[in-house]
Amino acid sequence: MILAVADTHAVIWYLFKNPQLSARAFSRFNRAVDTGNQIAVSSVTFVEIVYLLEKGRIPATTLEVIAMEMQKAHALIVEVPLDLSISKAMASVSRAAVPDMPDRIIAATALHLGVPLISRDRRIQLSEVETVW
Q: Of 3, 10, 95, 126, whose CB neighbour count within 10 A is largest?
């Protein structure tokens, strides 16, 4: 069962044990681990990771670390592909409130799945999307 969707930085910070991840967010990841559940990431997260790698803003091994985590028998992280239903869910995420398209896709993924979004993004937190931070 999917307990939440994680935005790009949240999943990176969790896997790399970065202290920028809030205690509540860390707890949500750990709850998934403890209960054998999963945290979803949108397929657009992998595009963002490549972009951040190219800019030198995240560890060079980020994509490999996430790929290895996803290949485990009881993987914590599961990919949710961007599809028509998530595109339709974007209509429920105001472009005025969340103007960045990747952020809207990630937020729409959480709405579509009916789970909270793990994100420190203040714009998303102020939107109608339930967030954990």
A: 10
pTM, 2 dp: 0.96
Domain total of the chain: 1
Instruction: Calculate the alpha carbon distances from 13 to 10, 76, 85, 99, 129 in Å.
Output: 5, 14, 28, 23, 21
Domain of 107: which CATH number?
3.40.50.1010
Nearest to 119, CA basis, from 64, 35, 104, 90: 104
User: Range of 71's domain?
Assistant: 2-132
Distance CA 42, CA 47 (A): 10
